[in-house]
Amino acid sequence: MESSEKLIIVMVGLPARGKSYIARKLARYLNWAGLKAKVFNSGMYRRVLIGVDCKSTFFSQNNREAVKARENCTNEAISDLVNFLCNGKKNFNMNR
């Protein structure tokens, strides 16, 4: 790949099916191969911003407040993704 080319790989699917595992392994390989790769996991953003003790109602489409909160977490991840693509940096502090 030329240095000006960018590639985004999106993993979607049911919970606990290995998306994060595969994404981390792929990023590790790409970094080893000399390409800059980073994983932006919206679930990790949710855990940092919202917490880990979410009840099942948090994931309901009928819970408008939770839908908005999940969208905010995803928007943080996308914002960091765009910043990484443009500048090679990540703004979000996952250690909040």
Structural category is: mainly alpha
* Domains (count): 2
Helix content: 40-55%
Q: What's the count of strands?
A: 0
Low-confidence stretches: none
Terminal CA distance: 35 Å
Could you give the topology of this structure?
Blueprint: H1 19-32, H2 42-49, H3 64-87
Which descriptors would you attach to this protein?
mainly alpha; 3 helices; 0% strand
Give a structural overview.
- It is built from three helices and no strands.
- It is an all-alpha fold and 96 residues long.
- The protein folds into two domains: 1-39, no CATH class; 41-96, no CATH class.
- Helix 2 crosses helix 3.
- The longest helix has 24 residues, at 64-87.
- The chain starts with 18 loop residues before the first helix and ends in a 9-residue tail after the last helix.
- The mean pLDDT is 87.
Brief overview, please?
With 96 residues, the chain is mainly alpha-helical. 48% of the residues lie in helices and 0% in strands. The mean pLDDT is 87.
